[in-house]
Amino acid sequence: MEDNFKMVAKTFYGFEEILAKELLQLGAQDIKPGNRMVSFVGDLGFLYKANLCLRTALKILKPIHSARVQNDEELYQLFYDFPWEDYLDIDSKFMIDSVVSGTIFTHSQYAAQKAKDGLVDFFRDQHNERPSVDLNRPDLRINLHIQDDWCTISLDSSGASLHHRGYRTQTNIAPLNEVLAAGIIQLSGWKGNMDFLDPMCGSGTLLIEAAMFACNIPANINRKSFAFEKWTDWDADLFEKIQASQLKKVSNPGIQIKGSDKAPSAIEKAALNIENANLTEFITLEKKDFFQIEKETQGPLHLLTNPPYGERLDGDMNALYQGIGDSFKQSFPNTHAWIISSNMEAIKCVGLRPSRKIKLYNGKLETRLLYYPIYEGTKRVHKLQKD
């Protein structure tokens, strides 16, 4: 393989600029944000580093071929003619993920099937044998993307989505995806330089991602494996060097990261996940109802939480969100308060005007990430003090 090549990092809607900034800080070249993705250039070592360190990436793909295809037979021929022997042995196992859009190809599974037929027929015609499909533990994961008549074949270097960090063995009701949690932490503007609080912490995902961010711990350091470890050019020594280099950058931020929840089961799950992430010394937990909490820190506080949306829980969501707003006003002076929610009606009951609204998706749910700056006194006094 050449020293430098193009890669594509997939992400969630609204995270493209954050991911581009992460890639820039990591040392990527030719960074170009797109729709739920960012393309960039780097070498094999950077592919390892991107998988290990990027907090807002879901997958890292390596495009290996692009061409126009007008119908399913041309797609079959494209895969038949491609030099798969450079990437696969006859006894290898593979799978094809496909994403299609446009009017020519409308069924992703059908497109994947035609691509698979072309690949295996090539091997069968050349060697009278063929590699087998394995959807669970393939040696090579192939990504097929067709937009109208433009087809891109990529190698999936990540395998399972990069939100599978490896630390979360326990989940609470409606847990946040880890990549979503990491992204909203960065969107909220927190730099790891002031105390952090999640007063409805559930299974602790926001707390863990905040601590890893503040301590500069690689996002996927606890992950057990990546798909690139089965590639023919896998360099274990290079990966270990990159891993060791990144771990040298870990530091203690010297701030308090606290979480609380009224449910004992949630605190137990959060504690176990925090232990799995080796972050017990950086995160403090307590069983407490949000409405019984008051701000403890003297300086500014960053509060970020994911309250119930009402999708899975019964109860009066409007009253809950009104209580959240009342607590912000009464108990959290000098606080940067952020919530993420899909309950647009309940959001209106917070009783505060958000100074920022950011549209995101939590799974299929359209949500808003909302910022409520809570000042020490009135807003007018705050401005006078700043002047």
SSE topology string: EHEEHEHEHEEEHEHHEHEEHEHEEH
Which CATH class of the largest domain?
A: Alpha Beta
Strand order of the largest sheet: 2-3-1-4-8-7-5-6
The main sheet comes to:
8 strands, mixed
Question: What is the SS-derived class?
Answer: alpha/beta
Strand element count:
15
What is the CATH-assigned architecture of the largest domain?
3-Layer(aba) Sandwich
In the CATH hierarchy, the third-tier topology of the largest domain is known as Rossmann fold
Low-confidence stretches: 380-387
The 3D shape can be described as elongated
Intertermini distance: 58 Å
Briefly, what is this?
The protein is an alpha/beta fold and 387 residues long. The chain has helices at 16-26, 44-53, 72-81, 108-127, 178-187, 205-214, 236-247, 264-276, 317-331, 344-347, 379-386; strands at 5-10, 29-33, 37-42, 59-68, 93-101, 132-133, 140-147, 150-156, 195-198, 257-261, 283-287, 301-305, 335-341, 356-362, 365-374. The protein has eleven helices and 15 strands.
List its traits:
single chain, 387 residues, VC0802-like, Rossmann fold, 2 domains, 8-stranded mixed sheet, 11 helices, 32% helix, disordered C terminus
Describe this structure in words.
The protein is an alpha/beta fold and 387 residues long. The protein has 2 domains: 5-156, VC0802-like (2-Layer Sandwich); 178-217 and 251-386, 3-Layer(aba) Sandwich (Rossmann fold), CATH 3.40.50.150. 32% of the residues lie in helices and 25% in strands. The protein has an 8-stranded mixed sheet. Strands 11-10-9-12-13-15-14 form a 7-stranded mixed sheet, with helices on one face. Helix 2 crosses helix 7. The longest helix is centred in the N-terminal third of the chain and has 20 residues, at 108-127. The radius of gyration is 24 Å and the shape is elongated. The model is unreliable at 380-387 (pLDDT under 50).
